[in-house]
Amino acid sequence: MGGWAIAVHGGAGVDPDLPLQRQEEAKQLLTRVLNLGISALRSNLSAIDVVELVVRELETDPLFNSGCGSALTAKGTVEMEASIMDGPKRRCGAVSGLTTVKNPISLARLVMDKSPHSYLAFDGAEDFARQQGVEVVDNEYFITPDNIGMLKLAKEANTILFDYRIPSKGCGAGVESPLKMNGLPMSVYAPETVGCVVVDREGRCAAATSTGGLMNKMVGRIGDSPLIGAGTYACKLAGVSCTGEGEAIIRGTLAREVSAVMEYKGLGLQEAVDYVIKNRLDEGMAGLIAVSSKGEVAYGFNCNGMFRGCASENGFMEVGIWE
């Protein structure tokens, strides 16, 4: 085995005019959760436990788009989703449409560990949360003043805002965005989904992803983050978490493709990531982080930048946003 490795992300497709203060806040948060994961791995916590621990921490901080600070639906509410996968036996759990569960990733873990199913959504997921005794809060807990303001901006522009905290230049009513999703206009492309991938000292891979989705999204919309094989995937070879244009990630089954080309084409981890980003996104924009059972760590994206951090047992550590 090559030792442990870990990577985290806070979204791909960053506004090039992102204020320096916010860039620094993002780097500080990524560094903090990366060090949290490193400490857990040095204490021999398993990969599946580490990805849950790290993503819970990201869900608790309102900076990125998961848990507290999640994007708002067109009705001004929060509907969160998450998934987690344990590579050795490809066990998985996913949830969607959560409105009161404080840490969606932990409910996804309970779906995997304590239910006969792999995916629960909306009222069924909320009922299961209460049966399991997880912490729940009012929907207002997840809503921030920034999000309320950005939802107003999105409605005025009649569009979906991806980077819902950073208004685009000219993103006012009557201004059509040159970017589109499924043929429909959108504004600045910078979703801020969070994710974590880990391989532990035993060579076990795991992955976890959590998000609030898109600002001004239709009620009931489900993205790639809770879809096993699209936004999240882990097996004996690798663990992968994706972020970006959810509809494109879904079409390309992006997370599964990384391990598939490793298995069927014999590519190394970074080669596989590069191949998938180049050949499986069509015209979509996205990024991903990945680890391999050999202790390797990799990432890739085809947009302006990706909030990410990665480290390995051999002493490598990086936190960055741009290429």
TrEMBL record:
Residues noted as binding substrate in the record, renumbered to the chain: R221, I222, G223, D224, T243, G244, E245, G246
Transmembrane intervals: none
Subunit structure as annotated in this protein's UniProt entry: Heterotetramer of two alpha and two beta chains arranged as a dimer of alpha/beta heterodimers.
Pfam family, one: Asparaginase_2
InterPro entries to which the protein is assigned, alphabetical: Ntn_hydrolases_N, Peptidase_T2
Site (Cleavage): E192, T193
Keywords assigned: Autocatalytic cleavage, Hydrolase, Protease
A GO MF label: asparaginase activity
Coiled coil: none
Organism expressing this protein natively: Vicia faba
Reactions accelerated catalytically: Cleavage of a beta-linked Asp residue from the N-terminus of a polypeptide
UniProt xrefs under CDD domains: Asparaginase_2
PANTHER family: ISOASPARTYL PEPTIDASE_L-ASPARAGINASE 2-RELATED, L-ASPARAGINASE
EC number: 3.4.19.5
Active-site residues, Swiss-Prot/TrEMBL: T193
Biological process, per Gene Ontology: proteolysis
Protein name: beta-aspartyl-peptidase
